[in-house]
Amino acid sequence: MTKLQQVSQSKPKRRFLPRALRFFMSAIVIVSLIIIGLSVLYRFVPPSYSALMLWRMASGVETDYRWRPLDRISDNLAYAVIASEDARFCRHNGVDWLAVETVWQDLQKSGNNRPRGASTIAMQVARNLFLWPSRNYLRKALEVPIAYWLDMVWTKRRMIEIYLNIVEWGSGIYGAEAAARHYFGRNAANLNPAQAALLAAALPNPIARNPARPSRKLVRLANSVQKRLRAIRGRATCIFSN
Predict the structure, then answer these.
(1) Summary mean pLDDT of the chain
(2) HSE-up of 52 (CA within 13 Å, CB side)?
(3) For residue 174, what are the contacts with CB-CB under 8 A and spacing of at least 6?
(4) pTM (2 d.p.)
(5) What is the band of 2 on the pLDDT scale with cuts at 50, 70, 90?
(6) Looking at per-residue confidence, does 144 or 11 come out higher?
């Protein structure tokens, strides 16, 4: 055997898996740095777009997005959304594990294997702002650390402000101002409790539910939200803290 053959045989073969793993880890680091940087930036400036808006725009859906500071959005809507989506908003750090435990128990009883429910406002902001719209366990797993991070770097007031501005309220309709104008022909600052409750009740399925022409089910849900709205006012004082 020649020296050249010996060298060629002793040369270690490159394996695909380590290279793929390095690429995957590098991608995670890059995406994490982008999310960290943008979240710090969004503490001070409004997001130009959310990931959900970009996904919808890529599908050809036109976007109506009008940023409004929280003091130009009716308190009725802020309270209604908290009452409907995240009643413990002021008391958890981004993830409500009590709600997660309840949903997990329900999943075990029903046998439903689709991850659903228990999403806090912070988790919904994480999903809408940085992730993708399809529902699966990977996305749920990513929502948790991002929600904790956002709750750490933003105030509760900033969290609800961004949420109310980027949440989808219909096909291509994003935020309180666009929704208030589209469904009720008024500014977000002028939403009354009944209108705020209808908007909040539509959020779990904003594409199918129309607050301007509510079904009986939506009216029933909105009435329930409006009752909880009155009860939540004294407990959601964190949204007034800067």
Answers:
(1) 88
(2) 23
(3) 50, 52, 53, 63, 64, 65, 165, 166, 167, 168
(4) 0.86
(5) low
(6) 144
Identify the CA nearest to 180 among candidates 80, 102, 110, 99. 80
Q: What is the 3-state secondary structure (H, E, C) of 41-105?
A: HHCCCCCCCCHHHHHHHHCCCCCEECCCCHHHCCHHHHHHHHHHHCCCCCCCCCCCHHHHHHHHH
CATH class for the domain made up of 19-240: mainly alpha
Q: What is the dihedral of CA 212, 215, 217, 223, to 10 degrees?
A: 40
At 60-119, the pLDDT tens digits run 999 999 999 999 999 999 999 999 999 999 999 999 988 666 666 656 666 555 444 578
So what's the pLDDT on residue 16?
A: 57
Asked if residue 143 lies in contact with residue 126, where contact means CB atoms within 8 angstroms, the answer is: yes
Q: Are 188 and 177 in contact (CB under 8 A)?
A: yes
Determine how β-strand 173-174 pairs with β-strand 64-65. Answer: parallel
The ranges assigned to domains in the chain are 19-240
Q: Residue 136 in contact with residue 115, Cβ under 8 Å?
A: yes
Q: How far apart (Å, rounded) are the C-alpha atoms in residues 43 and 194?
A: 31
Structure tokens at 14: 């490159």
156 closest CA partner among 185, 128, 108, 121? 121
Euclidean distance between CA atoms 159 and 240, whole angstroms: 11
CA distance 153 to 64: 28
Contacts of 116 (CB under 8 A, 6+ apart): 103, 135
34-63 tens-digit pLDDT? 999 999 999 999 999 999 999 999 999 999
